[in-house]
Amino acid sequence: MNRLDRYFFRELMRSTAMVLMAFAALYVLLTVLDEQSDLRYGNQWGTVAMVVAYTLPTKLYEIAPIILLIAWMLAIGGLSARSELTAMFASGISLGSMMLSMSKTLFISLAFFMAMGEWLGPVANTQAQNLKNQALGVKVMDDGQGLWMKSDDTFLLVDKAFADGRLVGAQLFIENDGQLERMIEAETLMYENNQWIASQAYEKQYQLAQWPNVYVEQKRYENSPIQLDLSPGLFKSALSQPQDMSVLELWDYVQFMRSNGLYPGMYEYALWKKFMMPLTVIGLLIWVFPMLLGSMRHVSVGQKVFVGVLVGLVFFLLDKIVVNLTLAYQIPALLGVIFLPLLLLGWAWLRFKRLN
């Protein structure tokens, strides 16, 4: 890095760190009060603190565009208000050189947030959910209707799924050429040593060769491995919110849903959203950059924060509208995700053209 790069890096990273800590403190305060309001926790403040700490990386990743937007508005607006940018222009530094220097810091910031959301967040969310389930004594899934999963010719219905991976009240229906061949009812299913183990299971095997005279062979077993081509991660994916999953988890689950004729919908949208997050941030920053060089150079810090939050909220409101339209009309998820960032980039290009 040259001197200009280091200067922008120091100013932008300092501002980003301040805004990041402010949002983190606000989230911790609000979430601790919300979690502790559940009286079933009792006085387990340690558990509440751990749950909040584990969920913090994902929440900060979700609002990364707003964090970077406000941080850059504070940093660049401050430089402009102190006439430092004017002095740089006067010394012969072009706007393109400044933006190139800032882009290096932007890539570092994006890499930090993407690592937080892609690797740290999903792992931490799992730990948070386990702690919360243990403290509350509840199951991961128990809605009274069960969870259906399908793999090739095997259909699985699960009554309850626990945080430790146990599947309780499992029923498997195995077909052959469109006809029911076997049915297995198991009290519990556990994934151990790369295979599913059925406990207290009852199996019925149907001989349909002389239909309608059906011969049924029955057997019981205490613990026995069964053939089930479903990854335990698919159950976690089915019970997780799309924004809490990593790119690999989303990709696997989207492919699983497509292979079984299901509409991936929100999961596919969340997948492309993760890929397009850098483009979203770049579009927001480039769109707001002319404001920082012009009308906002003498605006107070509080006003800059207000404008940054307002722009971010309007963007996310529009994003929610686009999400709903994409899902309602089953528009390709990539088109729904890329629409707003491209619109921002096009608008920013027109503004820069007029600025030049």
Structure summarized in a few sentences:
With about 350 residues, the chain is an alpha+beta fold. About 60% of the residues lie in helices and about 15% in strands. The chain has 2 domains: about 5-135 and about 265-355, no CATH class; about 145-240, Roll (SH3 type barrels).
Question: Could you walk me through the main structural features you see in this protein, from its secondary elements to its overall organization?
Answer:
There is one protein chain. The protein has helices at residues 3-36, 45-62, 64-81, 84-90, 95-136, 232-239, 247-259, 266-293, 301-328, 333-355, and strands at 147-151, 154-161, 167-176, 179-192, 195-207, 215-226. By secondary structure, the protein is an alpha+beta fold. It has two domains: 3-136 and 265-355, no CATH class; 147-240, SH3 type barrels, CATH 2.30.30. It has a six-stranded antiparallel sheet with strand order 1-2-3-4-5-6, with no helix packed on it. The radius of gyration is 27 Å and the shape is elongated. The mean pLDDT is 82.
Q: Any chance you could write out the topology, listing elements then pairs?
A:
Elements: H1 3-36, H2 45-62, H3 64-81, H4 84-90, H5 95-136, E1 147-151, E2 154-161, E3 167-176, E4 179-192, E5 195-207, E6 215-226, H6 232-239, H7 247-259, H8 266-293, H9 301-328, H10 333-355
Antiparallel strand pairs: 1-2, 2-3, 3-4, 4-5, 5-6
